[in-house]
Design brief:
Strand order of the largest sheet: 3-4-5-7-6
Number of domains: 2
Number of helices: 10
Helix content: 40-55%
Shape: globular
Largest sheet: 5 strands, antiparallel
Structural class: alpha+beta
CATH superfamily of the largest domain: Aminoglycoside phosphotransferase (APH), C-terminal lobe
Radius of gyration: 20 Å
Protein name: Aminoglycoside phosphotransferase domain-containing protein
Order of helices and strands: EEHEEEHHEEHHHEEEEHHHH
GO molecular function, one term: ethanolamine kinase activity
GO biological process, one term: phosphatidylethanolamine biosynthetic process
InterPro entries: Aminoglycoside_PTrfase, Kinase-like_dom_sf
CATH topology of the largest domain: Aminoglycoside 3'-phosphotransferase, Chain: A, domain 2
Number of strands: 11
Distance between the termini: 59 Å
Oligomer: single chain
Length: about 290
């Protein structure tokens, strides 16, 4: 039996304590709530300092999460005071400094867009994000035994043909920029967490993901972003929005379907069913430009 700070540890938690023993003397382990692909742990050492352990696991493999890529993105962003430093990059996971603060309760779109633009100005990570490839990777991990598999394949095949020539720009993107991944801190203002999907990508696609995560109108937010940042190609961007919305929803569909396949939680199945039905209707109406 493994006990830390009076708490009995699970097998996986005890394994993390042992793995990090050469670096840290861990006194407390607490699972962090939320996160489909994370399943992270909050660790506390003998001096009371906190850390986050982000494991490499079956879930991260299924979702094509690369902790080496995440380590690079965290290193870049932390140098510009946008997140905490990564400390240890191990084949079994990533150890990151804990950010003390609280999740914002108010959706201040202008403030978030300014923060997103700061992120977009960072040096590019090496990894490139390509939505069609991401879709192929997700789909290849789906079980053909799913009752929705034939419908999913039909949507997948159509979405793989969507024209995603893009804006022609490549910036540092987060691709999961929701309130749930922001921490308000007294020293550094808003900090960003969970860089597991971050990569070099199209800024407009990052904006679409941002809007989907926060239930915002894409066209309005895109125009606000262009005005805030003197972006002069907003008409070109506006023409790309419908296809980018389809791509975003297509990837979300496969993400939720994989989540249901992995954990069997009804909330993931319900979201997958809803998005699948919506996408089928939109694709049948011929809104995608091929």
């Amino acid at each position: 039996m493994n006990v830390t700070n009076g708490n009995t540890l699970s097998h996986d938690e005890a394994a993390v304590v042992e793995l990090l023993r050469p670096y840290l003397s861990i006194r407390d382990v607490q699972p962090l709530a939320g996160g489909l692909t994370n399943r992270c742990l909050k660790l506390t050492d003998e001096h009371g300092k906190h850390y986050v352990w982000r494991p490499q696991s079956r879930a991260s493999d299924l979702f094509n999460i690369d902790r080496n890529r995440e380590y690079e993105c965290l290193t870049i962003a932390s140098k510009h005071k946008l997140t905490s430093k990564p400390l240890i990059n191990h084949e079994q996971g990533l150890l990151v400094e804990w950010i003390e603060g609280s999740q914002p309760t108010q959706l201040d779109v202008e403030r978030l867009l300014k923060l997103l633009h700061r992120l977009h100005q960072l040096p590019l990570p090496r990894q490139q994000f390509h939505p069609a490839k991401q879709g192929r990777d997700y789909f290849s991990n789906l079980s053909p035994e799913s009752e929705r598999f034939s419908r999913l394949k039909c949507v997948h095949d159509q979405c793989q043909q969507i024209n995603c020539m893009g804006t022609g720009q490549r910036v540092f993107c987060h691709f999961d920029f929701g309130l749930y991944n922001l921490i308000e801190t007294p020293e550094n203002g808003l900090q960003i967490i969970d860089f597991e999907y971050a990569a070099a990508g199209d800024p407009l696609l990052d904006i679409v993901f941002f809007c989907r995560a926060n239930e915002l109108d894409v066209m309005r937010v895109m125009n606000d972003y262009c005005e805030l940042n003197n972006q002069r190609e907003h008409e070109k961007w506006a023409g790309l929005v419908p296809n980018y919305e389809l791509l975003s929803d297509y990837l979300s569909l496969l993400w939720f379907e994989l989540g249901y396949q992995l954990y069997g939680l009804p909330i993931y199945e319900d979201n997958a069913k809803m998005i699948l039905t919506e996408l089928e209707g939109r694709l049948c109406m011929g809104k995608a430009a091929y």
